[in-house]
């Protein structure tokens, strides 16, 4: 099945810094989503982005489907950005999402 | 409000007992899913259903069972055959391909 790798596994930054999270996947996809898992465990949808670029406030994402990777950018980080960020992909012809292991982001004040 | 509701939020089970986790959605989504998350790990797929009265095993279906009698509901039963059931369980539904998640149920075996 399709493999998903996220990097880095952990990232510690000071408030105000910018960060880039990466997601590599092993096959063609028809779905790619970025989620933020909050301290209570809920998965918050950030982007649905099987290809192209999207922006939402301080967050933006880019997926280069032909090269099988996606990037999540967080600018001017705030302590509330802390948590685990997951990339999940759906392979072509498959309904289900396969998750990476996540990047744990810690923003210190 | 539209959304996905999981209940209960916390559940304690004695060894050898079956328990059922509830998942209800009012988003009119056709597909529904159950995932399991262990501490510090990603999510792994247990079962999914694309239409009523049909469901497929995911990657870790052993020791679990599901039903899909109504479009809105996709309950998960954790049976006594599941050797290590303590985990965080997340239900999701999707329209076309974008998925949305409920708030999860934390199951602890005591």
A few lines on this structure:
The complex is a heterodimer of chains A (109) and B (110). By secondary structure, chain A is mainly beta. Helices cover 0% and strands 60% of the residues of chain A.
Structure description:
The complex is a heterodimer of chains A (109) and B (110). Chain A is mainly β. Helix content of chain A is 0%, strand content 60%. In chain A, the strands form two sheets. In chain A, strands 2, 4, 5, 9, 10 and 11 form a six-stranded mixed sheet that branches. Chain A has a five-stranded antiparallel sheet with strand order 1-3-8-7-6, with no helix packed on it. With 110 residues, chain B is mostly beta strands. Chain B starts with a strand and ends with a strand. The mean pLDDT of chain B is 94. The A-B interface holds A 30-31, 33, 35, 40-43, 45, 48, 50, 86, 88, 90, 95-102 and B 31, 33, 35, 37, 41-45, 48, 50, 58, 88, 90, 92, 94, 97-101, 103-104, 106.
* Major pleated sheet of chain B: 7 strands, mixed
Give me the strand/helix succession of chain B. Answer: EEEEEEEEEEE
Distance between the termini of chain B: 35 Å
Indicate the overall shape of chain B. globular
Along the chain, the helix and strand elements of chain A come as EEEEEEEEEEE
Structural class of chain B: mainly beta
Q: Radius of gyration of chain A over alpha carbons?
A: 13 Å
Helix content of chain B: under 10%
The average pLDDT of chain A is 95
Number of strands of chain A: 11
What is the SS-derived class of chain A?
mainly beta
Give a topology summary.
The complex is a heterodimer of chains A (about 110) and B (about 110).
Chain A: E1 4-7, E2 10-14, E3 19-25, E4 29-37, E5 43-48, E6 52-56, E7 59-64, E8 69-74, E9 83-91, E10 98-99, E11 103-108
Parallel strand pairs in A: 2-11
Antiparallel strand pairs in A: 1-3, 3-8, 4-5, 4-9, 6-7, 7-8, 9-10, 9-11
Chain B: E1 4-7, E2 10-13, E3 19-25, E4 31-37, E5 43-51, E6 54-57, E7 64-66, E8 76-78, E9 87-95, E10 98-101, E11 105-109
Parallel strand pairs in B: 2-11
Antiparallel strand pairs in B: 1-3, 3-8, 4-5, 4-9, 5-6, 7-8, 9-10, 9-11
């Amino acid at each position: 099945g399709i493999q998903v790798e996220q990097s880095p596994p952990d990232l510690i930054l000071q408030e105000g810094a910018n960060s880039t999270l990466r997601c590599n996947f092993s096959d063609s996809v028809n779905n790619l989503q970025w989620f933020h898992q909050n301290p209570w465990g809920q998965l918050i949808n950030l982007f649905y982005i099987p290809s192209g670029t999207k922006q939402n406030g301080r967050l933006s994402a880019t997926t280069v489907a032909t090269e099988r990777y996606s990037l999540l950018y967080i600018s001017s980080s705030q302590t509330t950005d802390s948590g685990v960020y997951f990339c999940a992909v759906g392979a072509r012809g498959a309904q289900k999402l396969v998750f990476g292991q996540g990047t744990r982001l810690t923003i210190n004040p | 409000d539209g959304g996905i509701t999981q209940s209960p939020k916390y559940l304690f089970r004695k060894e050898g007992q079956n328990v059922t986790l509830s998942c209800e959605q009012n988003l009119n989504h056709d597909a529904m899913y159950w995932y399991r998350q262990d501490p510090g790990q990603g999510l792994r797929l247990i079962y999914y259903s694309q239409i009523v009265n049909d469901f497929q095993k995911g990657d870790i279906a052993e020791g679990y069972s599901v039903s899909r009698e109504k479009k809105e509901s996709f309950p998960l039963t954790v049976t006594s055959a599941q050797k290590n059931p303590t985990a965080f369980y997340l239900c999701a539904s999707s329209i076309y391909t974008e998925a949305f998640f409920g708030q999860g149920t934390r199951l602890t075996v005591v």
